[in-house]
Every structure is written in structure tokens, then in C-alpha cells.
Amino acid sequence: MTSPTRPADQLRDVQIELGYIPSNPASVLYRCEGTIVLCTASLEATVPPWLAGRGKGWVTAEYSMLPGSTQPRKPRDRGGKMDGRTTEIQRLIGRSLRAVVDLVALGERSITVDCDVIQADGGTRTASITGGFIALAKAIEIAVPGSRIGDGPIHDSIAAISTGIVNDVAHLDLDYKLDVAADVDMNVVMTGAGKFVEIQGTGEEATFDDDQLADLLRLAKKGIRELTGKQLEALASC
Fold it and tell me: Using an 8 Å Cβ cutoff, are 43 and 107 in contact?
């Protein structure tokens, strides 16, 4: 778990294992200390019926927390029934990934990015976006030989991080203990070029001012720059 001595502007330790599942090279085990997410990207040579014949592809995502990822045990989603949090998170992951993909250049193909939380210690949605992008980029690299970020269907990288105000101090990358203590928490999704895709900020029975908002966004930008470097390093290594 995260050390209580971690500086407020420092990311948790991130470890990325690309090709974690031997049968799927577009699989990523993404660890940010106590949070562990398995992200896999699967390619199909078809598109949803509503896209058929339109000359463009589709990218979507599914998100799940495995029963043993939290205490108490989280019941499995069955029969197509998902709780509201799961639905909201997987929609966030899907639209974040689509933000950096040229669906016309992808062609009539579909890619599903599955994000399965093995262990949760805060930031599972942001870890899923950051790790899910690596899996997506690898899948597209395989589907469109010679393609690279900025030269092919993917025109930029995407990553996400949390920030928050805890005891009047802005913190980067909240683990569970920081998250539950936060007066304000925020999730930020950004491209490698520094453009925002989504900002979700909420005061928990609290308010925040312009200066605090600026501090949270400054930390998010710093964290995402560092995560972008780690994503590119992982993709270059495999």
C-alpha cells in the first residue's frame, strides 16, 4: 500500500507488464502500488450493426471489479445487470480511448478493451484508462502493421489520474486512504499533447476555489506527463 510519507505531488509507483497473457500480446498488467488492473484489447473484423457499411470502426470498453478485489467481497455482475458505478466507469473508459482514435483510419474493425480490477486501492478508473490505452495501442499496432502513435489510427496517447484536497493540501494520485479523507476529489483525463478529455471534480460536503482548482489541475498535468512517458516506454519495449 502507499507509504504515508509519499510527497503530495508524487505518483504512486507504477509498474506495467505488456504481453502479460501469452495468448494475447495486447494485454497489460497495470500496477500503481495497491491498485492492480488487467487490461486486454480484443480485435474483431466486424462493427456494431449501426456502423455497418459506414467505413469506420469502433472502440469500446468493459470494466469490472473482481469479487476478491475489495473487502467485503464485491458480487459479480450477472445477466447483463451492472450497477450504476460500473456503467459510468466503462462509458468513461470507452469515450476516453475513442478520443485519440481515428475511427475511419481504423476501418471496419471493432476493438473491445476489457479492464478487470484484480485489487483496488483507489484510482481504478484512472488506472483502467491509462493501462487500457497501452493495450489498445498494441492491438492497433498488430492490426495495422507499421502504425505508431501519431502515424496511423491513433493520433495521440491518453492517460488519467486523480487529484484531491486533503486537509487543505492538494494531493496527486489518491489511494483509498487519501480518497476517503479528501474534501475534494477530481479525476482528470488528458492526451499526451496536454488536451483535456474529461474533468470530474466534486466537493465532498466542501467547496473549492479557483486557486485550489488550479493546484489540482497543475498536479494532474504533471502526473499525466509522467504516465505518458511510462506508456510510451512500455510500448517501445515490446
Answer: no
- d(CA 89, CA 68) in angstroms, rounded, equals 19
Could you tell me the three cell numbers for 236?
517501445
Residue with cell 480511448: 97
Q: Whole-model pTM?
A: 0.94
Q: Grid coordinates in use for 37?
A: 488492473
SS3 state of residue 12:
coil
Residues 32/123, Cβ–Cβ less than 8 Å? yes
How far CA 171 is from CA of 119, 125, 178, 180, in Å, comes to 22, 17, 8, 13
| Rounded to 5°, angle at Cα 206 from 202 and 208 | 70
Cell numbers of 36, please? 492492480
β-sheet bridge partners, residue 65: 117
Q: What is the pLDDT of residues 63-107, one digit of tens each?
A: 998 887 878 888 877 666 677 889 999 999 999 999 999 999 999
Residue 56 has which C-alpha cell?
469506420
Q: Cα–Cα distance between 22 and 119 in angstroms, integer?
A: 21
In this structure, are residues 130 and 160 in contact, taking their beta carbons and an 8 Å threshold? yes
For residues 123 and 210, give the distance between their C-alpha atoms in angstroms, rounded to a whole number: 24
Residue 102 cell numbers, joined: 481515428
